[in-house]
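Subject: Dynein heavy chain coiled coil stalk domain-containing protein structure
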Amino acid sequence: AKKQAVEADQARIAKEEVETKAIASNAKAELDVVMPMLNSALAAVDKLEKGDISEVKNFTKPPALVVLTLSAVMILFNKPTDWANAKKALGAADFLSNVKNYDKDNIKDSVVRKLQKYIQDPDFKVENVLRSSKAGGALCVWVHAMNTYAEVSTTVAPKRAALKAAEKSLAEKQKALAEAEAELAVVIAKVTALGEKYDNSVGEKNRLREESEALESKLERADKLVKGLSGEYTRWQASIGTFKGMTQNAIGDSLI
């Protein structure tokens, strides 16, 4: 019964493993659609140098599309969108690092909603911004990538949650199965040991029976021998008596 229960659990968990992998594969497939765009955006940002950022920061009269781009960037960082604050952010030593390591998996819905004003602007296109600034163009690519990733993540989020729950449930069941398998192994070992002990005891019993039968056979032979010798003893006694009588008669006859 224990073995059958463990085998049933093994089959059930194997099925859950397949289902969990399917959820993970489905979620990954949806994210894979947006990953090329994201990687392209990060590559563009990665090529930026301090001089490119300084160029934007030092604009005395920044182009409108550069202002628009930096305003969108500031929304993603949840900061005031005016040019003064944008210039301040550009001057920070860790600005590019913050862009590259942006927490794209936790973009708030409120941020995405604010961003739509820029995304839907027909002029807010990479090729347009690039005409004004290399850094602005790279940051425009990045803003679009973050927006697309956030939209896809919204669709994928329930699947990620389902995957997380499935993985947790699967891990718990795998642990319980491992414990049940360990218990079953102990039971099997005990049964095997008992079987060996039984086989040994049966072997010993058979050996003792054979010895007993051999002894009984010897006893029977000895008994027959003793009984045979007893008969001979009686005859020997009779013969000795006869012989003594004959001897005495012979002596008497000789005296006469």
